Amino acid sequence: MDFAYVFKNKIIQKVGDYVERLTVLGCGTMGHSIALNAAWAGMDVTLQGIDEQNCEAGWKSLVRKLDVLEDHGLFSGSEAQQIRGRITMSISIEEAVKGATFVIEAVPENLELKKSVFTRLDGLCGEHVILASNTSGLSPTSIASEVRLPERVVVTHFWNPAHLIPLVEVVRGEKTNDDTVKRSFDLLNQMKKKPIEVKKELPGFIGNRLQYALFREAQYLLETGAASKEDIDAAVTYSIGRRLPVTGPLQSADLGGLDVFSSISDYLFSDLSSAEESLPVLKELVKKEKLGEKTGEGFYKWDESFSVEIQLKREKELIRYLKEDLAADHVMGGNS
After folding, report:
1. 177 flagged as catalytic
2. Is 174 a catalytic residue?
3. What pLDDT, in 10s, does the model give residues 290-334?
4. Active site includes 228?
5. Which residues pair with 301 in a beta bridge?
6. What is the end-to-end Cα distance of the chain in Å, rounded?
7. DSSP states of 129-182
8. Region for residue 223 given its phi and psi (left: phi exceeds 0; alpha: psi -120 to 50; beta: otherwise)
């Protein structure tokens, strides 16, 4: 193990109008990836786990991601070492948030757990500290319901894998103030993310509502026997999946002609799935504990070789897009 359980005096990073010190709570799938993203962007970050085993697992996952990025030429070995050196591990929340000005919570997706974490943070952190949750759909108002200063609570929803997916949804609670949103955007821009503001608090925010609308229709098509699971997936990956990285649904409609899209909507919407819960095929898989890759079977069978193949393929494609984003940012920066 090559990390220390100590809080170090870090070089403070200037973000927007503020000098921020970042702490991420949670070493799991999202937490270690968010911390990696921050360190890669040149920021010093403290990453907190519940115990030594949790920290070690998070650190190993982080180092593996670093190795993949290095193998793809995104930085040199010496730069990878510098990135690792910007990350401090801690098993103590009290130590992890000491001196922090911005805390991102990335604990499991359970409302009561998150509320308890934020109540604890509320007592540990000064009034100037932003408290952000990485929830993928829970209400920021509910998360902040027992916090003394709910105006400094906000959602910053990163997408998995957080170090490769640019989008972060910034979601206000009922009492979140403008300064909190501005500091969140400043921090995320420093991390080279693409933040969007969700102006209305609603379940699932923006990205997941769009994702689950597609997933509901995919379930319906499979349920009714319209096509095989392979062909339903192929219908996305080899059509709309190819253009969505450039044009989202509304811009695609503009390019296709709004008269055409309106006409198709008029006859198609009434035939789309309007299911209000998971469909029977999915419910049956869950009942049988066939939960996907993590259990070895879901809609597909996931042996080790297939799992590695698909995950590496996805990671390679995301890195390709990330390289394009970085190149475009470099050109824009050079022209400014």
Report:
1. no
2. no
3. 999 999 999 999 999 999 999 999 999 999 999 998 888 766 665
4. no
5. 297
6. 43
7. -EEEE--SSS-HHHHTTT-S-GGGEEEEEE-SSTTT--EEEEEE-TT--HHHHH
8. alpha
